[in-house]
Write a structure and sequence with these properties.
Helices cover about 85% and strands about 0% of the residues. By secondary structure, the chain is an all-alpha fold.
């Protein structure tokens, strides 16, 4: 029997089983940590126990430091889409709908989702690596010794900054995206700026703007929470910091795509 167990543990079947079981356990532990820390942070937020100085610093981090890369990504995405769609629509006689199509696309999807990807890549990864480094170097343990709750000190300002600043970033990025689409359309077709903007608002309603802002609030809070939670759970030195940062980025990407799907089903299905 012992020889069979030894042989079985060396087989590919056992390695696959062990790998899957470890991934499932890791998934549940990560999800549990995110939910647990999220409720703990919510308790402090509802009690208005917030560090104003740290909150303002995190707002600057989310809202200003991230703008260059966010505007670049959204602007270039709009240019790519407009350069391929505008000329084809004009050929098919739908030139007077180009502005409408681009505006709806940017407000509903491109502005929020591409801004989210940019924030994850720049800010989310930075938050995760920062907190993970504090964890593996025992700085978080030092906070606990000083009777400072790490969730209150680290999580709350970052989550609030994500909730408040993500909509601002999305608004600015969406404006840049619409303008980039107008410039590209004018350069690649015979349509002028007036034709583009006259059609831009034909099918855009307050519902689209409201959903985009609500979506961006969920994106910002989720990115900040996941980044903090993954960094907080780091262990194992420098390697652990890298694993925590990678996990934060992957989980954040998946989370905002799930949020986007939920909003699409609820409001536009």
């Amino acid at each position: 029997m012992g020889a069979f167990k030894k042989y079985f543990r060396q087989s590919a079947t056992y390695k696959i089983y062990k790998g899957l079981s470890e991934e499932i356990v890791d998934f549940l532990n990560t999800l549990g940590g995110i939910v647990q820390n999220g409720f703990a942070a919510l308790k402090y937020i509802l009690a208005f126990q917030i560090n104003p100085k740290e909150f303002m610093w995190q707002c600057e981090r989310f809202g200003i430091s991230s703008l260059p890369i966010t505007l670049s990504i959204v602007g270039m995405t709009s240019i790519i889409v407009a350069s391929q769609v505008a000329s084809e629509m004009v050929k098919q006689g739908g030139g007077h709908f180009v502005g409408l199509l681009m505006t709806i696309l940017i407000i509903r999807e491109v502005g929020a989702i591409m801004s989210g990807f940019a924030i994850i890549s720049m800010i989310g990864s930075s938050i995760a690596s920062e907190i993970a480094t504090m964890r593996v170097t025992e700085q978080i343990d030092a906070l606990k010794v000083l009777k400072v709750d790490p969730v209150k000190y680290l999580f709350v300002p970052r989550i609030l900054a994500g909730l408040f600043m993500m909509p601002v970033v999305v608004i600015i990025a969406s404006i840049v995206g619409v303008l980039a689409g107008a410039v590209t359309t004018t350069m690649t077709t015979e349509l002028g700026y007036r034709a583009y903007f006259d059609s831009a608002w034909l099918g855009v309603y307050m519902k689209d703007l409201s959903v985009s802002l609500l979506k961006s609030i969920c994106f910002g809070g989720t990115i900040a929470l996941i980044s903090c939670a993954c960094g907080y759970a780091a262990k194992g030195g420098a390697k652990g910091v890298g694993i925590a940062t990678t996990k934060a980025v992957v989980w954040s990407f998946v989370a905002i795509v799930i949020w986007d799907m939920i909003f699409a089903i609820i409001f536009f299905f």
